[in-house]
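cache lookup: miss for this entity combination. No prior model stored, computing from scratch. Input as submitted by user K.M.:
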Amino acid sequence: MIFINNVIMVFYYILSAFLAFLLVRNFVQEKKKVDDMLMNLIVLIPLLLRLLRVK
Amino acid sequence: MSRTTLWKIFLVAAVALLIVATALPILRHSRFRFPVIAGPGVSRVARLSDFAPGLKGTRADTNVYILEGREPGGKALMIANTHANEPAGILAALIFIENAELEKGTLFIIPNFNRSGSLDTKPGDGYPLFYHLDTPWGRKKFRYGNRDASPLDQWPDPDVFIHYPDRQLLSFIDARNTNRTWPGRPNGLLMERVTFAAMELLRNEKVDVAIDLHGAETMFPVTNCIVAPQSAARLATRVSLYVKARERFDNHVEPSPEGFRGLSHREIADHSATLPFLLEAPIPFLDQPTGPKTEQLLLDGKDPFLLKLAARKKLFVPYDESGWPIDKRVGQHVSVMLEIFSQYSKKSPERTIAVRGVPRYADIVKNGTGFYYRDPKKADASRLYFE
Protein backbone atom coordinates (compact mmCIF):
# COMPACT_ATOMS: atom_id res chain seq x y z
CA MET A 1 0.00 0.00 0.00
CA ILE A 2 2.80 2.42 0.92
CA PHE A 3 4.56 1.65 -2.36
CA ILE A 4 1.36 2.44 -4.32
CA ASN A 5 0.93 5.67 -2.32
CA ASN A 6 4.46 6.72 -3.19
CA VAL A 7 3.93 5.91 -6.87
CA ILE A 8 0.71 7.99 -6.90
CA MET A 9 2.48 10.87 -5.14
CA VAL A 10 5.34 10.89 -7.66
CA PHE A 11 2.84 10.57 -10.51
CA TYR A 12 0.90 13.54 -9.09
CA TYR A 13 4.02 15.71 -9.13
CA ILE A 14 4.74 14.67 -12.72
CA LEU A 15 1.12 15.42 -13.65
CA SER A 16 1.33 18.82 -11.94
CA ALA A 17 4.51 19.64 -13.83
CA PHE A 18 2.98 18.54 -17.13
CA LEU A 19 -0.21 20.59 -16.59
CA ALA A 20 1.89 23.58 -15.53
CA PHE A 21 3.89 23.23 -18.75
CA LEU A 22 0.65 23.14 -20.83
CA LEU A 23 -0.73 26.20 -19.06
CA VAL A 24 2.48 28.19 -19.53
CA ARG A 25 2.55 27.16 -23.21
CA ASN A 26 -1.10 28.20 -23.67
CA PHE A 27 -0.35 31.51 -21.97
CA VAL A 28 2.63 32.20 -24.22
CA GLN A 29 0.74 31.19 -27.37
CA GLU A 30 -2.39 33.23 -26.59
CA LYS A 31 -2.36 36.35 -28.75
CA LYS A 32 -5.70 38.06 -28.26
CA LYS A 33 -7.90 37.07 -25.33
CA VAL A 34 -6.74 38.63 -22.08
CA ASP A 35 -9.35 36.58 -20.18
CA ASP A 36 -7.75 33.35 -21.34
CA MET A 37 -4.26 34.59 -20.48
CA LEU A 38 -5.43 35.36 -16.94
CA MET A 39 -7.29 32.06 -16.62
CA ASN A 40 -4.16 30.11 -17.56
CA LEU A 41 -2.15 31.91 -14.91
CA ILE A 42 -4.75 31.49 -12.17
CA VAL A 43 -5.13 27.76 -12.84
CA LEU A 44 -1.35 27.55 -12.68
CA ILE A 45 -1.16 28.84 -9.07
CA PRO A 46 -2.09 25.66 -7.09
CA LEU A 47 0.06 23.52 -9.36
CA LEU A 48 3.05 25.79 -8.78
CA LEU A 49 2.47 25.83 -5.03
CA ARG A 50 2.43 22.03 -4.94
CA LEU A 51 5.52 21.72 -7.15
CA LEU A 52 7.37 24.16 -4.90
CA ARG A 53 6.05 22.22 -1.86
CA VAL A 54 4.61 25.37 -0.30
CA LYS A 55 1.05 24.09 0.05
CA MET B 1 6.36 46.45 -27.65
CA SER B 2 2.97 45.06 -28.73
CA ARG B 3 -0.21 45.50 -26.72
CA THR B 4 -0.40 41.69 -26.14
CA THR B 5 3.12 41.58 -24.70
CA LEU B 6 2.31 44.46 -22.37
CA TRP B 7 -0.81 42.65 -21.17
CA LYS B 8 1.22 39.49 -20.59
CA ILE B 9 3.87 41.31 -18.59
CA PHE B 10 1.18 42.98 -16.50
CA LEU B 11 -0.68 39.71 -15.85
CA VAL B 12 2.45 37.77 -14.94
CA ALA B 13 3.47 40.53 -12.54
CA ALA B 14 0.00 40.66 -10.95
CA VAL B 15 -0.23 36.87 -10.49
CA ALA B 16 3.36 36.70 -9.21
CA LEU B 17 2.47 39.36 -6.66
CA LEU B 18 -0.60 37.37 -5.67
CA ILE B 19 1.49 34.23 -5.21
CA VAL B 20 4.15 36.03 -3.18
CA ALA B 21 1.57 37.80 -1.00
CA THR B 22 -0.31 34.59 -0.19
CA ALA B 23 2.41 31.93 -0.25
CA LEU B 24 5.20 33.83 1.51
CA PRO B 25 3.45 33.95 4.92
CA ILE B 26 2.72 30.21 4.67
CA LEU B 27 6.33 29.51 3.71
CA ARG B 28 7.59 31.67 6.58
CA HIS B 29 5.25 29.82 8.95
CA SER B 30 6.47 26.38 7.93
CA ARG B 31 10.12 27.44 8.23
CA PHE B 32 9.79 29.25 11.55
CA ARG B 33 11.35 27.48 14.55
CA PHE B 34 10.99 28.65 18.13
CA PRO B 35 13.72 28.10 20.72
CA VAL B 36 13.36 25.66 23.59
CA ILE B 37 15.92 25.69 26.38
CA ALA B 38 16.79 22.34 27.87
CA GLY B 39 16.38 23.08 31.58
CA PRO B 40 18.44 21.73 34.49
CA GLY B 41 16.56 18.42 34.49
CA VAL B 42 17.11 17.52 30.84
CA SER B 43 19.90 14.95 30.68
CA ARG B 44 19.75 14.34 26.92
CA VAL B 45 17.66 14.94 23.84
CA ALA B 46 16.97 12.00 21.53
CA ARG B 47 15.02 11.71 18.30
CA LEU B 48 11.83 9.72 17.93
CA SER B 49 13.50 7.87 15.05
CA ASP B 50 15.98 6.46 17.60
CA PHE B 51 13.10 4.23 18.71
CA ALA B 52 11.91 3.29 15.19
CA PRO B 53 14.21 4.01 12.24
CA GLY B 54 11.30 4.27 9.77
CA LEU B 55 11.00 7.95 10.70
CA LYS B 56 14.61 8.91 10.07
CA GLY B 57 15.07 11.70 7.55
CA THR B 58 11.36 12.57 7.38
CA ARG B 59 9.67 15.82 8.48
CA ALA B 60 7.77 13.75 11.04
CA ASP B 61 10.87 12.94 13.09
CA THR B 62 10.88 14.94 16.30
CA ASN B 63 12.78 15.67 19.52
CA VAL B 64 12.39 13.58 22.67
CA TYR B 65 13.60 15.42 25.78
CA ILE B 66 14.72 13.00 28.47
CA LEU B 67 14.82 14.02 32.14
CA GLU B 68 16.52 11.42 34.31
CA GLY B 69 16.27 11.47 38.10
CA ARG B 70 19.08 11.23 40.61
CA GLU B 71 17.56 7.98 41.77
CA PRO B 72 15.86 5.29 39.70
CA GLY B 73 12.10 5.03 39.81
CA GLY B 74 9.16 4.90 37.47
CA LYS B 75 9.02 6.24 33.93
CA ALA B 76 6.54 8.55 32.25
CA LEU B 77 5.98 9.78 28.72
CA MET B 78 4.39 13.16 28.00
CA ILE B 79 3.13 13.82 24.47
CA ALA B 80 2.02 17.26 23.25
CA ASN B 81 0.99 18.60 19.83
CA THR B 82 -0.65 15.33 18.86
CA HIS B 83 -3.00 17.91 17.39
CA ALA B 84 -0.84 20.95 16.68
CA ASN B 85 -3.84 23.30 16.78
CA GLU B 86 -4.36 22.62 20.52
CA PRO B 87 -1.54 24.69 22.04
CA ALA B 88 -2.10 24.25 25.80
CA GLY B 89 -0.34 20.87 25.57
CA ILE B 90 2.94 22.07 24.07
CA LEU B 91 2.97 25.12 26.36
CA ALA B 92 2.60 22.83 29.40
CA ALA B 93 5.27 20.46 28.07
CA LEU B 94 7.69 23.37 27.62
CA ILE B 95 7.20 24.39 31.27
CA PHE B 96 8.40 20.89 32.22
CA ILE B 97 11.32 20.90 29.75
CA GLU B 98 12.60 24.30 30.89
CA ASN B 99 11.98 23.93 34.65
CA ALA B 100 11.46 20.36 35.85
CA GLU B 101 14.01 18.33 37.74
CA LEU B 102 13.48 14.66 38.48
CA GLU B 103 14.31 13.47 41.97
CA LYS B 104 13.26 9.93 41.13
CA GLY B 105 12.38 8.24 37.88
CA THR B 106 12.58 9.30 34.24
CA LEU B 107 10.40 11.58 32.17
CA PHE B 108 10.31 11.47 28.37
CA ILE B 109 8.75 14.56 26.76
CA ILE B 110 7.77 14.83 23.10
CA PRO B 111 6.52 18.44 22.80
CA ASN B 112 5.89 18.30 19.07
CA PHE B 113 4.49 14.82 18.46
CA ASN B 114 2.81 15.53 15.10
CA ARG B 115 5.65 17.68 13.83
CA SER B 116 4.39 17.52 10.26
CA GLY B 117 1.01 18.94 11.38
CA SER B 118 2.78 21.68 13.32
CA LEU B 119 4.43 22.85 10.08
CA ASP B 120 1.06 23.14 8.35
CA THR B 121 -1.87 25.51 8.82
CA LYS B 122 -5.53 25.79 7.89
CA PRO B 123 -5.99 29.06 5.98
CA GLY B 124 -9.51 28.03 4.93
CA ASP B 125 -10.52 28.18 8.60
CA GLY B 126 -8.75 31.51 9.09
CA TYR B 127 -6.17 30.15 11.52
CA PRO B 128 -3.58 32.67 12.73
CA LEU B 129 -0.11 31.53 11.67
CA PHE B 130 1.55 32.50 14.94
CA TYR B 131 0.70 33.31 18.53
CA HIS B 132 2.72 35.12 21.17
CA LEU B 133 3.09 34.94 24.95
CA ASP B 134 4.47 37.65 27.20
CA THR B 135 7.49 36.62 29.24
CA PRO B 136 9.69 38.54 31.71
CA TRP B 137 12.27 39.01 28.89
CA GLY B 138 9.92 39.89 25.99
CA ARG B 139 7.37 38.18 23.75
CA LYS B 140 7.87 34.56 22.79
CA LYS B 141 6.56 33.62 19.36
CA PHE B 142 5.06 30.20 18.57
CA ARG B 143 3.94 28.55 15.34
CA TYR B 144 0.25 27.58 15.30
CA GLY B 145 -0.19 24.28 13.49
CA ASN B 146 -2.92 22.09 12.10
CA ARG B 147 -4.76 19.09 13.55
CA ASP B 148 -3.55 16.67 10.90
CA ALA B 149 -0.21 16.00 9.27
CA SER B 150 0.62 18.00 6.17
CA PRO B 151 -0.38 16.44 2.84
CA LEU B 152 3.11 17.43 1.69
CA ASP B 153 4.40 14.66 3.96
CA GLN B 154 1.68 12.02 3.69
CA TRP B 155 -0.36 11.81 0.52
CA PRO B 156 -2.62 10.65 -1.14
CA ASP B 157 -5.39 10.23 1.43
CA PRO B 158 -7.35 6.99 1.16
CA ASP B 159 -11.13 7.08 0.49
CA VAL B 160 -11.53 5.40 3.87
CA PHE B 161 -8.79 4.99 6.47
CA ILE B 162 -8.60 1.34 7.55
CA HIS B 163 -7.18 1.23 11.05
CA TYR B 164 -4.30 -1.15 11.69
CA PRO B 165 -4.54 -3.78 13.16
CA ASP B 166 -8.30 -3.78 13.90
CA ARG B 167 -9.42 -2.89 10.35
CA GLN B 168 -12.06 -0.50 11.69
CA LEU B 169 -13.17 1.96 8.99
CA LEU B 170 -12.40 5.56 9.93
CA SER B 171 -12.68 8.88 8.12
CA PHE B 172 -10.15 9.38 5.30
CA ILE B 173 -8.65 12.41 7.08
CA ASP B 174 -7.76 10.27 10.11
CA ALA B 175 -4.96 8.69 8.10
CA ARG B 176 -3.07 11.90 8.95
CA ASN B 177 -4.36 12.17 12.54
CA THR B 178 -1.85 10.94 15.15
CA ASN B 179 -4.69 10.28 17.54
CA ARG B 180 -6.23 7.70 15.20
CA THR B 181 -3.16 5.86 13.95
CA TRP B 182 -2.13 4.17 17.22
CA PRO B 183 -0.58 1.62 17.73
CA GLY B 184 0.93 2.11 14.29
CA ARG B 185 3.29 -0.14 12.36
CA PRO B 186 6.94 0.10 11.34
CA ASN B 187 6.33 0.21 7.58
CA GLY B 188 2.91 1.89 7.47
CA LEU B 189 1.79 5.39 6.57
CA LEU B 190 4.05 8.11 7.96
CA MET B 191 1.70 8.88 10.88
CA GLU B 192 1.45 5.15 11.67
CA ARG B 193 5.25 5.16 11.87
CA VAL B 194 5.11 8.12 14.31
CA THR B 195 2.76 6.31 16.69
CA PHE B 196 4.67 3.04 16.24
CA ALA B 197 7.88 4.80 17.32
CA ALA B 198 6.11 6.07 20.45
CA MET B 199 4.82 2.53 21.14
CA GLU B 200 8.37 1.22 20.80
CA LEU B 201 9.56 3.85 23.28
CA LEU B 202 6.83 2.77 25.74
CA ARG B 203 7.56 -0.94 25.34
CA ASN B 204 11.38 -0.83 25.21
CA GLU B 205 11.76 1.66 28.06
CA LYS B 206 9.04 -0.04 30.14
CA VAL B 207 7.22 3.26 30.66
CA ASP B 208 4.68 3.22 33.49
CA VAL B 209 2.51 6.20 32.59
CA ALA B 210 1.78 7.96 29.28
CA ILE B 211 0.00 11.31 29.07
CA ASP B 212 -1.32 12.71 25.79
CA LEU B 213 -2.20 16.44 25.99
CA HIS B 214 -5.11 17.86 24.03
CA GLY B 215 -7.71 20.61 23.80
CA ALA B 216 -11.37 20.15 22.93
CA GLU B 217 -14.27 22.42 21.97
CA THR B 218 -16.56 23.67 24.73
CA MET B 219 -19.51 22.26 22.74
CA PHE B 220 -17.93 18.79 22.64
CA PRO B 221 -18.89 16.53 25.57
CA VAL B 222 -15.39 15.08 26.00
CA THR B 223 -13.76 18.28 27.23
CA ASN B 224 -12.21 19.50 30.46
CA CYS B 225 -11.54 15.90 31.43
CA ILE B 226 -9.15 12.99 31.80
CA VAL B 227 -9.84 10.14 29.39
CA ALA B 228 -8.65 6.83 30.76
CA PRO B 229 -9.14 3.15 29.94
CA GLN B 230 -10.35 0.69 32.57
CA SER B 231 -6.79 -0.07 33.71
CA ALA B 232 -6.14 3.60 34.56
CA ALA B 233 -9.66 4.65 35.59
CA ARG B 234 -9.13 4.30 39.34
CA LEU B 235 -5.98 6.43 39.25
CA ALA B 236 -7.67 9.01 37.01
CA THR B 237 -10.58 9.26 39.44
CA ARG B 238 -8.22 9.89 42.36
CA VAL B 239 -6.43 12.58 40.35
CA SER B 240 -9.72 14.21 39.43
CA LEU B 241 -10.86 14.27 43.06
CA TYR B 242 -7.53 15.59 44.35
CA VAL B 243 -7.28 18.51 41.90
CA LYS B 244 -10.90 19.40 42.60
CA ALA B 245 -10.35 19.38 46.37
CA ARG B 246 -6.90 20.96 46.50
CA GLU B 247 -6.75 23.21 43.48
CA ARG B 248 -10.42 24.01 42.94
CA PHE B 249 -10.84 23.12 39.30
CA ASP B 250 -12.97 20.47 37.62
CA ASN B 251 -11.47 17.75 35.48
CA HIS B 252 -13.88 14.84 35.33
CA VAL B 253 -13.05 11.34 34.12
CA GLU B 254 -14.28 9.94 30.81
CA PRO B 255 -13.95 6.22 29.97
CA SER B 256 -11.89 5.26 26.94
CA PRO B 257 -14.37 3.62 24.51
CA GLU B 258 -13.39 0.02 23.71
CA GLY B 259 -14.95 0.04 20.26
CA PHE B 260 -13.31 3.20 18.94
CA ARG B 261 -9.89 2.32 17.62
CA GLY B 262 -6.72 4.28 16.98
CA LEU B 263 -6.89 6.58 20.02
CA SER B 264 -3.79 6.84 22.22
CA HIS B 265 -5.64 6.01 25.47
CA ARG B 266 -7.23 2.94 23.84
CA GLU B 267 -4.30 1.45 21.95
CA ILE B 268 -1.55 2.13 24.50
CA ALA B 269 -3.65 0.26 27.07
CA ASP B 270 -4.30 -2.63 24.67
CA HIS B 271 -0.79 -2.94 23.22
CA SER B 272 1.52 -2.23 26.17
CA ALA B 273 1.75 -2.39 29.95
CA THR B 274 1.69 1.42 30.22
CA LEU B 275 -1.21 3.26 31.90
CA PRO B 276 -2.41 5.91 29.42
CA PHE B 277 -4.23 9.17 30.13
CA LEU B 278 -5.49 11.74 27.67
CA LEU B 279 -6.06 15.23 29.06
CA GLU B 280 -8.55 17.57 27.40
CA ALA B 281 -8.58 21.28 28.21
CA PRO B 282 -11.36 23.44 26.74
CA ILE B 283 -10.37 25.50 23.69
CA PRO B 284 -13.15 27.89 22.61
CA PHE B 285 -11.15 28.83 19.50
CA LEU B 286 -12.00 25.44 17.96
CA ASP B 287 -15.76 25.74 18.50
CA GLN B 288 -17.61 26.36 15.25
CA PRO B 289 -20.07 29.12 16.24
CA THR B 290 -17.54 31.76 17.28
CA GLY B 291 -16.49 35.16 15.97
CA PRO B 292 -13.27 35.61 13.95
CA LYS B 293 -10.53 33.05 14.62
CA THR B 294 -8.03 35.54 15.99
CA GLU B 295 -4.90 35.11 18.05
CA GLN B 296 -6.72 36.82 20.90
CA LEU B 297 -9.55 34.27 20.83
CA LEU B 298 -6.96 31.50 20.79
CA LEU B 299 -5.31 32.92 23.92
CA ASP B 300 -8.16 34.33 26.01
CA GLY B 301 -11.02 32.09 24.84
CA LYS B 302 -13.50 34.96 25.07
CA ASP B 303 -16.32 34.90 22.54
CA PRO B 304 -19.74 36.64 22.64
CA PHE B 305 -21.48 33.86 20.70
CA LEU B 306 -20.27 31.17 23.09
CA LEU B 307 -21.43 33.37 25.94
CA LYS B 308 -24.96 33.33 24.49
CA LEU B 309 -24.78 29.57 24.01
CA ALA B 310 -23.61 29.18 27.61
CA ALA B 311 -26.68 31.10 28.78
CA ARG B 312 -28.77 28.53 26.90
CA LYS B 313 -26.79 25.67 28.50
CA LYS B 314 -25.38 24.44 25.20
CA LEU B 315 -21.78 24.16 26.41
CA PHE B 316 -20.20 21.32 28.35
CA VAL B 317 -18.04 23.60 30.54
CA PRO B 318 -18.79 26.61 32.73
CA TYR B 319 -18.36 29.73 30.60
CA ASP B 320 -18.61 33.42 31.48
CA GLU B 321 -17.11 36.79 30.47
CA SER B 322 -13.66 35.64 31.57
CA GLY B 323 -13.58 33.04 28.73
CA TRP B 324 -11.05 30.22 29.02
CA PRO B 325 -7.61 31.89 29.17
CA ILE B 326 -4.60 29.91 27.98
CA ASP B 327 -2.98 30.19 31.45
CA LYS B 328 -5.94 28.38 33.00
CA ARG B 329 -5.77 25.62 30.38
CA VAL B 330 -1.99 25.21 30.69
CA GLY B 331 -2.25 25.32 34.49
CA GLN B 332 -4.84 22.54 34.50
CA HIS B 333 -2.67 20.34 32.27
CA VAL B 334 0.42 20.89 34.43
CA SER B 335 -1.36 20.27 37.73
CA VAL B 336 -3.19 17.18 36.49
CA MET B 337 0.09 15.72 35.23
CA LEU B 338 1.86 16.40 38.53
CA GLU B 339 -1.06 14.78 40.34
CA ILE B 340 -0.93 11.71 38.05
CA PHE B 341 2.77 11.29 38.92
CA SER B 342 2.02 11.78 42.60
CA GLN B 343 -0.89 9.34 42.72
CA TYR B 344 0.97 6.75 40.65
CA SER B 345 3.95 7.02 43.01
CA LYS B 346 1.68 6.45 46.00
CA LYS B 347 0.23 3.37 44.34
CA SER B 348 3.63 1.99 43.24
CA PRO B 349 6.31 3.40 45.61
CA GLU B 350 9.05 1.32 43.97
CA ARG B 351 8.25 3.09 40.68
CA THR B 352 8.08 6.63 42.07
CA ILE B 353 8.17 9.56 39.65
CA ALA B 354 9.14 12.59 41.75
CA VAL B 355 9.25 15.95 39.95
CA ARG B 356 10.23 19.31 41.41
CA GLY B 357 10.63 22.84 40.07
CA VAL B 358 7.31 22.87 38.20
CA PRO B 359 4.60 25.42 39.09
CA ARG B 360 1.04 24.35 39.73
CA TYR B 361 -2.32 25.63 38.46
CA ALA B 362 -2.64 28.63 40.81
CA ASP B 363 0.96 29.79 40.09
CA ILE B 364 0.46 29.65 36.33
CA VAL B 365 -2.89 31.44 36.46
CA LYS B 366 -1.34 34.12 38.70
CA ASN B 367 1.99 34.64 36.91
CA GLY B 368 1.08 33.66 33.35
CA THR B 369 2.49 30.81 31.29
CA GLY B 370 5.25 32.97 29.76
CA PHE B 371 6.66 33.67 33.22
CA TYR B 372 8.11 30.12 33.24
CA TYR B 373 9.98 30.30 29.93
CA ARG B 374 13.69 31.05 29.95
CA ASP B 375 15.37 33.74 27.86
CA PRO B 376 17.01 32.03 24.84
CA LYS B 377 19.52 34.91 24.55
CA LYS B 378 20.92 34.05 27.96
CA ALA B 379 20.93 30.30 27.40
CA ASP B 380 24.02 28.22 26.76
CA ALA B 381 24.01 27.39 23.02
CA SER B 382 24.51 23.71 23.82
CA ARG B 383 21.17 23.71 25.73
CA LEU B 384 19.24 25.43 22.96
CA TYR B 385 16.89 23.40 20.74
CA PHE B 386 14.43 24.48 18.09
CA GLU B 387 10.94 23.17 17.51
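stored under new cache key. Chain A touches chain B at residues 2, 5, 8-9, 12, 27-28, 31-32, 34, 37-38, 41-42, 44-45, 48-49, 52-55 (CB under 8 Å).
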